[in-house]
Design a protein that fits this description.
Blueprint (H helix, E strand, L loop, with lengths): L6 E3 L4 H7 L5 E4 L5 H6 L7 E4 L9 E4 L2 E5 L4 H6 L7 H6 L6 H4 L4 H7 L5 H9 L2 E6 L2 E6 H4 E3 L2 E2 L6 E8 L5 E8 L9 E10 L2 E10 L6 E4 L1 H7 L3 H15 L10 H29 L1
Parallel strand pairs: 1-3, 2-3
Antiparallel strand pairs: 4-5, 5-10, 6-7, 6-10, 8-9, 11-12, 12-13, 13-14
Helix pairs in contact: 10-11
Length: 290
């Protein structure tokens, strides 16, 4: 199939992009790796495509203090290769799992967040880290915490007249450790289950632990698991038992031809135990080497 007819504009400023969306019938185009297939299958029929790739401020990737700011037109591949992005290790762990290199050369980080596929890696990373997503709309700019940004499957806090302008990730500090893993039928396929984990250690003890699961519900599922990690410590058997209980609570996606709900729960439990354990080990190593 071919897309339904649409108008195309390429504004040079965020205010102009917002103005083009004022009637509520437009759609923002950045990388197009999710949007173009939707248009081709006529699952979406926007009257106007608003191409934001000519807006200079949206092409910037920079570290400022304890935050890494990724503009809405920054390609995923560009983040993979940027020296500043190394300050957010979880991004570097997750990005190689996002589709294939050719897709990451066009797809954007913010585009993946705005698309909000339940099996996507970057929304889970944003939730795990407590990233902040900046939106511009008719009333000005506002910031939404990633953990409140995702409303449901492919549904977010972005309004019809809004433009996602950037996402800000907190940079890692000494004593922080991370883990990331997913199971898919083939590399680049949608994840059957996946987890992003972050653990902070202070003076050898767990100070904080967070995780976000993906491919297991209609949106990324975030949990603070500090109490769990404090209780089980380095005991792998206790950790596996605790994550099995966690999987029964969090995994609610229905079964399909790729796997039942029970199968996804087993995958998630194993991944969570593995990545939390790896994050804890990295956190202790990071604290010792500071």
């Amino acid at each position: 199939m071919k897309p339904a007819p649409f108008a195309y504009v390429r504004p040079a400023a965020v205010a102009d992009a917002v103005a083009e969306l004022a009637d509520g019938h437009g759609k923002v185009l950045a990388g197009g790796q999710s949007l173009v297939p939707v248009l081709a299958m006529r699952l979406g029929r926007p009257a106007t495509l608003v191409d934001i790739t000519a807006i200079e401020e949206l092409q910037q990737l920079r570290r400022t203090g304890d935050r890494l700011r990724v503009g809405a037109a920054v390609r995923q591949r560009g983040v993979e290769r940027a020296a500043d992005a190394a300050a957010v290790p979880l991004l570097g762990m997750a990005l190689p799992f996002v589709g294939h290199r050719e897709l990451r050369s066009r797809g954007t980080v913010c585009g993946s967040l705005a698309h909000a596929d339940p099996a996507a890696e970057l929304p889970a990373v944003a939730c795990c880290l407590g990233a902040r997503i900046e939106l511009a709309g008719p009333a000005g700019r506002r910031t939404v915490d990633a953990r409140g940004f995702f409303v449901g499957a492919m549904t977010t806090a972005v309004g019809a007249e809004d433009v996602v302008t950037a996402v800000e990730f907190p940079v890692a500090a000494p004593g922080d450790g991370f883990g990331f893993g997913e199971i898919a039928r083939r590399h680049g396929d949608f994840a059957l289950a996946g987890v992003a984990a972050a653990v902070t250690v202070r003076e050898g003890a767990v100070d904080a632990a967070r995780l976000a699961g993906f491919g297991i519900s209609d949106r990324p599922v975030f949990r603070d698991v500090t109490a769990l990690m404090t209780a089980v410590g380095d005991d792998p058997d206790a950790l596996r038992g605790a994550t099995a209980d966690l999987a029964r609570e969090l995994v609610d996606t229905g079964g399909d031809g790729h796997g039942s709900t029970g199968y996804r729960r087993r995958l998630f439990a194993v991944l969570t135990a593995r990545e939390l354990g790896a994050a804890l080990a990295r956190a202790r190593s990071s604290e010792v080497s500071r």
